[in-house]
Specification:
With about 700 residues, this protein is an alpha+beta fold. The protein contains 24 helices and 13 strands. About 65% of the residues lie in helices and about 10% in strands.
Length: about 700
């Protein structure tokens, strides 16, 4: 068994990094345990309570100051073109944020916690507070750099070093009471960051500098902003509860709470370390995320159940080591914290899952429920003392875990919904203006869409308004032009469509099949080469995706393997462009290619539908022969109006058509295109449509 574990440790990156992160967190917790054991023996419970409350506030500030870069570095650093500049930018920004946040906290102290006002009374203590906030923020952030590089053993070594050194500091600062405990904490974090920075220099060639790259901020902010809010919400309960307890019950009770929570965090090491490693593995190997996800769940369950049982049995004894008053006042609280280990594990797994999936809305929702439930219930249950806070903790973490389970089972996609609503309001407003403007210039004309009307997010909707066309799908009403519109892969024969075709031009009438198999057949006939392969005989990586159109479910798989029903298998085309992958979206209107866009997305999100794009000249990216073959491809497919997804293989230089779309969506200005490009896009597309189908 030991040999099997050692073999897995050497070969399984998730398992190895999880072990190192557990060891790192366990090291912090163990030395933290010894640190507070020493403090409990050297200082009064009131001094310990004041110090723990101050440290909790500092911890909250340090997380707020990271502005989400702790998660963003893990997610994006593996693919950054200039990682050293990215790290320097993050360190500079976090330092400034910590300085500002700490200063604001000192200003609002009379409102937040009057009992901590003593730290404002002396410039030295106030400066110590600000310096500690900065040191703690940077020390936490440096762990993200190691984690992004999948070098968790450095986190273990560095954390062990500064945590061990921390044990000597309470003796040195004994005469300063609560401030002495706080000074010991600040000095240890400063030491930890210094050691970590040296390790970065030695292991990765990192060079500290004041070089700041604004592009780094812009690139990661859309991702980190949600995680920033989520991280802050996640830390609120553990950081705010000591303040609430001290102000409403007393400083000794704050000490009892903090020590019980510290011991409980020994238990939480397991899910926190495993899910952090899961996040890192998912960011580096997204194609294997499902495999890593299942493995993480198994690791957590196998370790958590016996650990919870051990803490339930031995928790009172452990508390007694700090003093009989800690055991008497905190035993029930500690047992409740231990029982909450299952819900905390589920919440951690949910957070890691949605982090990799980049569903920041779900992450914020989970942590909002957690923060609101724990803090709100703690206030309500304060009359029951620390036991009430314990029940608030277990109920709040359970509510957050349930929220994660519901969002996993029934994805709400908060971020996507918000963007969609904002886009719909904007596009409907601008289209109304376009329609009124076009009506002043030309005759009143009508287009029949059959059987469905295009919604606002389809390019057809905007083009119709740009040209001043009325739209309907009623076969009994008059029309000037008919167009087939049904967002499906296979369109069955319809007598009504045959009648429309006999009456006059019916756009896309013949394009009844746009499946991947049909696209491949026509493409290989026209171009003389194809993309499909047999997964049973092919050796190496290939692409597996649904035969249905617009599923966006592609994934890279290893062959040989048995094919799955409903899926096709294509060669893995090398369309790498730096740390991104690129494709060409070719627009076809009639027998012309009026425009095309060059689209890129993260290499780790190869099949994601989120991309950036820019309009490019057709002749710069397609040869005349390729353009001729593309139009021939559309003719055989029956595509009069549509968009093709094309990839350029950097190994053989060939162009590959991998998808055909009849119901193409409208790019979002400010997301896919700039505002200026969007206007040009609409005008060119609409002009080509008018020339091809509305001009006699």
């Amino acid at each position: 068994m030991i040999s099997a574990l050692l073999k897995r440790f050497q070969s399984d990156s998730l398992f190895k990094n999880s072990v190192y992160l557990m060891m790192a967190t366990a090291s912090l917790a163990f030395f933290g345990f010894l640190f507070w054991f020493i403090c409990a023996r050297l200082f009064t419970t009131e001094e310990v309570g004041l110090a723990t409350t101050l440290i909790a506030a500092t911890t909250l500030i340090s997380i707020i100051a990271q502005i989400g870069f702790n998660a963003a570095l893990v997610r994006f650093l593996p693919t950054e073109e200039h990682p050293k500049t990215t790290v320097n930018t993050a360190f500079i920004l976090v330092t400034l944020a910590a300085l500002v946040a700490a200063s604001v906290f000192l200003i609002i102290l009379p409102v937040v916690s009057p009992k901590l006002l003593f730290i404002r009374e002396h410039a030295v203590v106030a400066s110590l507070f600000i310096a500690t906030c900065i040191a703690m923020a940077l020390n936490t952030l440096k762990d993200s750099v190691f984690l992004a590089r999948r070098r968790s053993h450095f986190i273990f070594l560095v954390n062990s070093a500064f945590s061990a050194a921390r044990l000597a500091f309470p003796f040195a600062f004994f005469a300063f009471g609560a401030v002495g405990i706080f000074a010991a904490t600040g000095l240890s974090h400063a030491l930890g960051f210094a050691i970590g920075a040296l390790a970065l220099v030695w292991s990765f060639g990192y060079k500290p500098s004041l070089r700041f790259d604004p592009d780094v901020v812009r690139r990661v902010w859309r991702y980190s902003s949600g995680n920033y809010l989520a991280s802050s919400l996640n830390l609120i309960p553990a950081s705010v509860l000591p303040l609430i307890i001290m102000e409403n019950i007393g400083a000794p009770e704050a000490a009892y709470f903090y020590i019980a929570m510290m011991i409980g965090n020994l238990l939480y090491v397991i899910p926190f370390a495993t899910t952090r490693s899961l996040f890192a593995e998912g960011s580096n190997e997204e194609a294997r995320f499902t495999e890593h996800f299942r493995s993480a769940v198994k690791i957590i369950i196998a370790l958590m159940l016996p650990a919870i049982a051990a803490l339930l049995i031995l928790g009172g004894f452990v508390l007694s080591l700090f003093g009989p008053e800690y055991a008497a006042e905190g035993a029930t609280l500690l047992r409740l914290i231990a029982l909450a280990g299952l819900s905390v594990s589920a919440m951690s797994i949910a957070n890691a899952y949605f982090q990799v999936k980049k569903d920041t809305g779900a992450i914020v929702a989970i942590n909002f429920v957690y923060a609101a439930a724990v803090v709100g219930l703690s206030y309500a249950l304060l009359p029951f003392g620390l036991s009430g806070v314990g029940f608030a903790w277990i109920i709040g973490t359970g509510a957050a875990a349930l929220t994660g389970a519901v969002l996993y089972r029934f994805p709400f996609n908060f971020t996507a919904r918000y963007k969609a609503i904002s886009y719909e309001i904007w596009i409907r407003y601008t289209c109304a203006i376009r329609y009124r403007r076009a009506r002043k210039k030309g005759p009143r004309r009508t287009i029949l869409f059959y059987p469905d009307l295009p919604k606002y997010y389809y390019v057809h909707y905007t083009i119709a308004h740009e040209l001043g066309l009325d739209m309907h799908n009623n076969l009994e009403r008059p029309y000037d032009l008919a167009m087939s519109f049904k967002d499906v892969t296979l369109r069955k024969a319809d007598p009504a469509e045959e009648e429309l075709l006999r009456k006059g031009r019916f756009i896309n009438a013949r394009a009844r099949d746009i499946s991947k198999e049909k696209v491949e057949r026509v493409f290989s006939d026209v171009f003389g080469y194809g993309t499909f392969l047999d997964p049973r005989t092919f050796e190496g990586e290939c692409v597996q995706k649904s035969n249905e159109n617009a599923m966006h479910d592609g994934t890279v798989v290893q062959c040989p393997r048995e094919p799955e029903a409903g899926y096709i298998y294509q060669k893995l085309i090398n369309n790498q462009d730096g740390d991104r992958v690129a494709d060409l979206r070719v627009k076809v209107v009639g027998r012309n290619i009026p425009l095309m866009t060059y689209r890129t997305r993260s290499a780790f999100d190869r099949f994601d539908n989120t991309q950036t794009s820019t309009m490019v000249p057709t002749d710069d990216y397609l040869t005349h022969n390729e353009q001729r073959k593309i139009l021939r491809f559309c003719e055989v497919m029956g595509i009069d109006f549509g968009a093709l997804d094309c990839l350029r293989d950097r190994d053989d230089g060939k162009l590959y058509i991998v998808d055909a779309n009849l119901t193409t969506g409208m790019p979002q200005p400010g997301v896919h295109l700039t505002r200026e490009e969007f206007e040009v896009y609409v005008q060119k597309f609409a002009g080509a449509f008018r020339d091809a189908f509305l001009t006699p």
